Amino acid sequence: MRSLIIFPLLATLTHGVSAQGSDLDLLRHVDPMIGTQRMGHVYPGATAPFGMVQLSPDTDTIPYAVDGKYNPAVYSTCSGYQYDDSTIVGFSHTHFSGTGHSDLGDILLMPTTGPLQMNPGTAAAPQSGFRSVFHHKNEKAVPGKYEVLLEDHGIKAELTATTRVGMHRYTFPRKETGRVILDLVHGIYNHADKNVWTFVRVENDTLVTGYRQTNGWGRTRTVYFAIAFDKLITDYGQQPDQRTTEYRGFWRKFDQTKDFPEMAGKQLRAWFNFDITVGEELLVKVALSSVSTEGALKNMQTEVPHWDFDRVVGETRDTWRKELSRIHIESKRPEVLTNFYTAMYHACLSPTVYMDVDGRYRGLDQNIHTAEGFTNYTTFSLWDTYRALHPLFNIIQRERSSDFINSMLAHYDQSAQHMLPIWSHHANENWCMIGYHAVSVIADAHVKGIRGFDAKHALDACAATARHRSFEGLGDYIDLGYVPEDRSGASVSKTLEYAYDDRCIQKMAFRLGNKALELEFAMRCGLSDRLFDHSTGFMRPRLADGSFLKEFDPLDTHQKGFIEGNAWNYGLYVPHEPGELVRLMGGPERFGVHLDSLFTMELPDKYFEHTEDITRDGIMGNYVHGNEPSHHVPYLYNYSDRPWMTGKRVRDVLDIMYKPKPDGLSGNDDCGQMSAWYIFSALGFYPMEPGSERYELGAPVVERARIPLANGTTFTVVAERQGPRNVYVQQVSLNGQRLDRTYITHAELMAGGTLTFRMGARPPEH
What integer is the mean pLDDT of 129-155? Predict the structure, then answer.
């Protein structure tokens, strides 16, 4: 064994903001446990804003499949953590926040005492393995820190993190051998063949390096790591891969089970022992890289060159304080403060940084690239986040918005399909969900003045993506004007989303003076009556011969033509042509009646009982807030004969669908989209059509809000006569001038000033 490695301390550190005044109070309003139960799928662990390391407890080992068939129980642990679980199997370093499918759960560590156990056991019999029982009374989660008592081992575990490094502090209960299990078998949505290969190398008495390559949602994903301990390893070993292989090589001449410094296999677990005295702490640092173990070690040396756990906690809390202070709200209702700042917290969990401190990262082509002039990001859940999360960033995270788009353009440049990302993570495109909504993100950033990316190259990338005829019915859509259901499923959903994305391209082409592209995509994006069935009053699937699909029930979420929605909800997905939608549905009055029916009718369970992403707690009448395609719908009242109902419906959703408790989210947070909807709606306006300058007006739930803007101005929202019963907007003024419209523009917002709502208990008189 060799000597203890010690990294030099940095002489000084620059804190993000002062820990004084109202900024300090914002942290107290964040509850990372919100959304950890049922469909929320949020992880409660320790991370820095947009961090590559997202360190959190994993509470079970539910497999993706049983007897070769999908196991629905796995859906409950998409984030790795489920509030109702009673055991913890360890702490892994990568997680998704609120996704309806999953991956990750990399590099799991579990501190233990007592006899060596090299399997996790089961939730029913935790004593059969290294997992431990825990109780929520002995658990605490705040921005930048998580702690829990592992009761079976008597170990207090504390976690914190920087952008690329997770730090653990384990306090052992008595003098004995302390042990840390490194589980490279573990993963989220695990299956028998998920691990392609794993490797561990014991460099010296305190340093371990290695990598894990997996085939999951991302089918060629590689994570390198470096693990440093602040105490000497006394001895170590591994549980060899028990699966037989045809070729065994000559490694069998060694005893690889103990004190052998190279470990490799598809299913690898290792253990490391330490001499521990009563109440002694063991500190562990884990750094990640997509490039190499050398890159992981450099990340560690740069971000955490010391062993001061509390210092990392303080620095990360300062970083969180800076992000939360981008919007200041006032409310007399504690639940509003908690919901709002927890939503702000969730909105800063992804996208995630995906490059080393030297700018190097693994690209979509699996080669190593260097980000020149931008920070490279991953985790783009674009079917969800284009709606509100990215528009929110275009107000409060403008520099990051530029980085996000440069990251998407790098993805495009490296893509074998020459397409922008659809749903991408960790140097992989997983092709999840429909549409090509990177187009929306780029167009929204461009119209809202985000600079720092090549706009002409971005427009070319948008057009190339939208012309990819082999992608999910796009060829037929280009030729016929719609996607035929008998050639590509979810045809109505696809057609409507393609049309919206094409309008984004048309508008961006207009702004850049590209007449040819403007005309091409203007021809593609018009709604007309391609899918509207006048006999039923709904969007309805068509076949390639032009006829409507015969079997049709507008309430059913299981039927052909739609994905994660029904005709009542998806039929209203025309955010770029609301006026045309109103015309098709018979005018403003009939449209208002239709919207009222959507919110007040009953949707029986049979219509969604087999749709995994839609549950009763996310439904209001027949309006499905727990899933994203309907998020703009309350704001469509602005185009009816009863625009005051916009505020009423928005306030109902805010109060019913968001609660400050573990089951407080009505659906998956979906990488921040559910939370971004809350943030905008609580402030009183919403980007119904990203790619345009307009924000539809609703009804704020706050008394007052201030948004300090990057240009030095401040935009203020004031709600006069605010109260739980005063849910109808009586009058809106901007800088003292009464508005006779139901929207404001981005230019008006960025100019600063005050948007004032006068609230009341009844609809305004007309």
Answer: 97
Band of pLDDT at residue 24, cut at 50, 70 and 90: low
Task: Report the run of H or E that residue 444 belongs to, with start and end.
Answer: helix 438-447
Q: How far apart are CA 411 and CA 420, in angstroms?
A: 6
User: What CATH number is associated with residue 57?
Assistant: 2.70.98.10
Predicted local distance difference test score (pLDDT) of residue 573: 96
Q: 356 versus 278: which is more confidently predicted?
A: 356
Average pLDDT, the chain: 94
Q: Is this model's pTM higher than 0.90 or not?
A: yes
Asked whether the predicted pLDDT for residue 1 surpasses 50, the reply is: no
Q: Is 414 found in the same domain as 287?
A: no
Q: Per residue in 52-105, pLDDT tens? A: 999 999 999 999 999 999 999 999 999 999 999 999 999 999 999 999 899 999
Of 257, 273, 307, which one is at a domain's C-terminal end?
Answer: 307
- Judged on CB neighbours under 10 Å (0-12, 13-18, 19+), 266 is middle
Residues 271 and 137 in one domain: yes
User: What DSSP line would sit under 388-437, residue for residue?
Assistant: THHHHHHHH-HHHHHHHHHHHHHHHHH-TT----SEEETTEE---SSS-T
Per the listing, tokens 């990294």 go with 7
Strand locations in 576-679 (E): 619-620, 623-624
Give me the CATH number covering residue 432: 1.20.1050.60
Q: What is the DSSP letter of 645?
A: H
In which residue are the tokens 């005829």 written? 469
Sign of the CA dihedral with 305 first, then 311, 317, and 322 last: negative
* 623-627 contact pairs (CB < 8 A, 24+): 623/569, 623/598, 623/599, 624/565, 624/566, 624/569, 625/653, 625/657, 625/666, 625/667, 626/39, 626/657, 626/666, 626/667, 626/668, 627/564, 627/565, 627/667
Task: With respect to residue 289, please indicate whether it lies within any of the assigned structural domains.
Answer: yes
529 pLDDT band (50/70/90 cuts)?
A: confident
Phi, psi of 336 (to 5 degrees): -70, -45
For the stretch 283-335, pLDDT in tens is 999 999 999 999 999 999 999 999 999 999 999 999 999 999 999 999 999 99
**What's at 113, amino acid-wise?**
T
d(C-alpha 277, C-alpha 370), whole Å: 45
Domain range for 194 is 22-307
Give the whole-angstrom CA distance, residue 72 versus residue 468. 34
What are the structure tokens assigned to 433, written together?
């969900």
Residue 639: inside a domain, yes or no?
Answer: no
Same domain, 412 and 298: no
Nearest to 435 by CA among 451, 422, 416: 422
